[in-house]
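Supplementary notes for students who missed Thursday's class. We covered one full example, reproduced here. Read the sequence, then the structure, then the short commentary at the end.
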Amino acid sequence: MKELTVSPKIKRRFIRDIYINREFSWLLFNKRVLDQAVDLTNPLLERCKFLSIFTSNLDEFFMVRVGSLYNESVSEPEATENKTQLTAAKQLDGISEVVAELYRLRAACYSALRKELSKNGLCILREEDLSPRQTEECRNIFLRHVLPLLSIMVLDAKHPLMQFENMRSYMLCQLEKDGRRMLGVIVVNPSLDRLYRLSGGKKVRLVSLETLVRMFGRLAFTGYTVNEQMMLRVTRNADFDTHIDDTDVERDFSEIMKKRVESRARLNVVRLEVDNEKSKLKEFVLKLLKLNSKFCYCDSRFFDYKFMFSLGNFLAPEESAKLKYPPFKGAVSRELAAAPSLIEEIFRRDVFLSYPYDSMNPLVDLLEECAKDRRVSSIMITIYRLAHHSRIAELLCRASENGKQVTVVIELCARFDEENNLYFANKLREAGCTIIYGMENYKVHSKIISVVLKEGEQLRYITHLGTGNYNESTSRQYTDLNILTADPAIGRDAVAFFRNIAICNTQFTYDRLLVAPETLKSGLISYIDREIQKARAGGEGYILAKMNSLTDKEIIDKFREASCAGVRIELIVRGICCLLPGVEQQTENIRVISIVGRFLEHSRVYSFGRGEDRVMYISSADLMTRNTDKRVEIAAPVLDAKIAEAIDRILQTMLADNVKARKLCADGSYCRVETLGAPLDAQASFLKPIES
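Structure (token representation):
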């Protein structure tokens, strides 16, 4: 695929000194996602999914990040971000230009995928591709299956202008009847199928819902002449305030969140998408929405590409399988599978799980055992995002019903999962669990389970510490690291952590854990300082870290100081990276790579030094200000030497990736890693023991 073309003016705006603007870096990340849609090392149907993921990412970017910048541009127009010193308005201007280019690249990507799908027996037909017989079949499909589920209205004095709902498609029509002109609106029902199969032929021939509405939507307006039509979709700001007054004990936070989630549908519009750039109706809608035309984007095909996920359903199973990744199941080690008791196994040794290559089942099985074991006195857990059908939630309910003290810290401000979390909070409460809605005005993003067992007069502990959510679905798609330990110091820290959550206390120093907002950042910085002192004393300073995003300026500046001192720094940053590596005499000892592949890289690891001198943490936190200063996050030390070696091998393999890895260059662009020796796809290499 072509590289993202950005004008020198925009690049100069978004890159300053050793800093890259956060929003620009995110757009570069999403371009890397789109690149996977044309990467021939991925099977065809998987490439189609990447196109859909790119679009979903962009939708959320507008709802959240552009929404946040819009709010800031209104409330604090002179405020600047702390790295590139840009106001919100200047960031929005640059975003609009880069996104316009991304739309053009997406259109080219879809056209290429559509041609390749056709070669593989799956044709997505446009209006101009249809024969007269197929056109008549499409007309019948529209009349029988689509029209009955469309909402139709004419806008006049009795039907005033409507409120376009967030992320829903509409057809706007200019109507004429008896010399009067008015507007007609078709509201496309989101429950309608996105694709309809036409009869006949060896190939699978599909026509989209959008094509049917464009071709036959006029039939909904009986007695009217349709002079012009345009499909549209609006994106509304979803960045509402989650701040609450914790001294207000009279109000239930869950009820407050319900109302705020409902308000999303009425917030201001931050993007308009249309299918006809030249339509006069576009100007009417822009004026109606009070939206600047630079935030109007045209896609003559689709606004939403979710249907690309389901294309394989139209092919025979054996044909579909050829165009997908080979299936696999996360492994369960022989030791864990043979263990008569997971509790006793963890008392014997620390257990390491690396999702999705390892199954989440041992953790679920452990909770099931804990729900039954008479020694278990209490189970405490943090929940941020759960699977819609969660065995973990069911087992917590069962444990409570069996008389265990179950405490669940459930974060209601997990964006776009608020309703799911409200549902599970009510379900768990009804089963007798103690529910805590986070901590003051900090999001609780930590991933920790504390199990306390009573054996006579002695208390024993099992603690789970991880980098990802307790979500069975995402554990098969996201890479995350997990440690189950019976270390008593960590166990006592875990109990203290939940006690502090309950009393809203952040000012606590733990024995082994680094916990934001109090000690996580300062703890990591102290280890960076350790490597700086080693390098200045003539020794080897080394830092190896993996995260989703790097935006915290204090950490970035500390990395620059370390680089200047001669510390070698290797960073694996999947998404946003606001640090520009390779700048002479500033960041020349820093290397940054990003890996976007079959699985979403989600684990966070912070490692300092080598060999016996190495100190390693796994964490729920990225190095973003929101994580280090504004959330409750945990970094847990890797105490078992074998587990530390296993994690280091994972990271070293990723650093050697020359297939999916992209290197962040000193000019702010991402380029392919030079291939030295045989091709190495790190994620594929981790799958080999499972598939064999």
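Commentary. The CA atoms of residues 1 and 269 lie 31 Å apart. Confidence is low (pLDDT under 50) at residues 242-251. If anything here is unclear, bring it to office hours.
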